[in-house]
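Hello,

Our lab assistant flagged a job as stuck in the queue for most of the afternoon. It eventually completed. Since we weren't sure the result was trustworthy after the delay, we are filing this so someone can double-check. Below is the sequence as submitted and the structure that was eventually returned. Let us know if re-running is recommended.
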Amino acid sequence: MIEVTTSALAAHPFLRGMPRRHLDALAEVGADVMFPAGHRIFEEGGFASRFWLIQSGHVALDMSVPGNGRVIIDDIGMGELLGCSWLFPPYLWAFGAVCTGPLEAFEFDAPAIRARCAADPAFGYELHERLIRVVASRLQSTRTRLIAMSINRGC
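-- returned structure --
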């Protein structure tokens, strides 16, 4: 793992415009990681101890569907956040994630970030606000896909 710099974090779309002191706090517990194609980053139901900001590549989010095995439900790519379950108890992954090609990302230690959020409410607010925008956007995207599926099936 390679050390993460504040300037590298400042360039990531998820963190753009974040105050430098907050970027410094993230950089202290971040690492630059790489995963090969096919690598399973996390498994549905596993403990969510990390999250990632994708620099390059894509990840398929999947979930187990009885009788159908793993079903891909979304694709997360460059400039996006991977992993939201680390922030909300019981800290268990709602989905699985597998690299669809080589992936480079900033990786963060979730318990350390939660502790920093508790110690610095301004940092916590800033991070929560950014996370909730991602969650809301993905919820809207899922809703749109579900409507399209129901129209295509004639429901």
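-- support follow-up --
The delay was a queue issue, not a problem with the job. The result is valid. Residues 2-152 form a domain with the Jelly Rolls fold (CATH 2.60.120.10). The helical segments are 6-10, 20-28, 110-119, 121-152.
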